[in-house]
Please model this.
Amino acid sequence: MYERMARPLSIRLWPRVSLGLNTGPEASAGTGLQETVSMGERKRRIGMGLVGPGFVAAHHLDAVRRLGDVDVIAIAGSSQAATDRKAADLHVDKAYGSYQDLIDNPDIEVVHNTTPNYLHLDVSMAAIKAGKHVISDKPLAMTYAECSMLRDAAQAAGVVNVVTFNYRGNPLVQHARRMAAENDIGQLFFLHGRYLQDWMADDHVYSWRLDKKKGGSSSALADIGSHWCDLAQHISGLKIVAVLAEMTTVVKTRYAPAVPREAFSGKDGKVMDPVEIGSEDLASVLLRFNSGATGCLSVGQITPGHKNDLEIELNGRTGSLRWNQENQNELWIGRYDRPNSVMARDPSQLPDGARRYAQLPAGHNEGWSDAFRNVIDDAYSWIRAEGDTDARPATICTFADACQICAVVEAMLLSHQAGGVWQMVVDEASPSLKIRSTVPENGLLSEYVATKAGS
Model:
């Protein structure tokens, strides 16, 4: 027993010294071995600043503080007084009432953008123009057009750009990804799952996410459906190329407080004003992938009893994989020719590509914040590698990746607006995914072809 625990304990009791760089030809599949370096090579400290000290901001700060070699220099908010209060709560020494003042601070190399969606473009673009690396909460921006602007600007400026699709950081997600890449469950033909929450089941709960001017045209799909789509593509290595969506607004009238509240904060009993809701809180989507695999997804934020119920299952010709975020220390593996099994998160049993994301020994459960920390750690490892494409860690979602996810969500909106018809996902940065958009008379997208660019 003690011999088995010795390896993970010896690795995790000190700040991690691995750069986490997947190199070589297998890097894109997440199966490469990480390079390890001495502590001396990680002595240079990096200064970061955060804009938008709301719900998720505390988790960004917690993650960077856990790294041990990143300094939290300052935060910026909507006003000096409000940000001063937040800085005290979050134990940050310096507060700015303007994001530009934070960006102008020469001690800050990396800007974390955790503002409401409508501010993502302005804040991230200002940071890029100042030559700062950017770590943005999702979605990257309000629309595909805005996402494209940020993608192109970041590429032109040569700055590291990351969007925090944090479920990539779970060790069993990385193990599932490796199994899929190594054909351990055969050719994938069906990907399905859900992302259900209930924090908006009460009609007296209101969030800026429901205001189309601040949150965008989509609510549930953009907010949490995007997570599932990113995870499906990340694990499978496939791309969603066509969708058929039905969207519903179950709670059509909500009651909003005079003073906005953070997500998941619930109601406080104060006087509320009625607000008519135009964005979806429930959606069902059929999916087509570039390999010919199909899928389906259910998304809702008003489903009682489901707190943060993200579940994904991949069915291959010889096996199946299922992972649930609320039980994230287990991976279900299904077989037709031998007993099914449940793999517990155990660093001593994980391959190298997944083991480095397990922070604790077996039996010491890890959670949401640990996976988030893993993604932030990979982001700073990539920053230290100066954004070298060959050094990009497995969990990193770039602005280009996030732009493609936005294209998926916009295709869902178009599908629903057209009356529930198949809609192609159009992403100008993915020319290798050209799809024949022939829709037969029966309305089924049963004929399509994935070809290489120019073929």
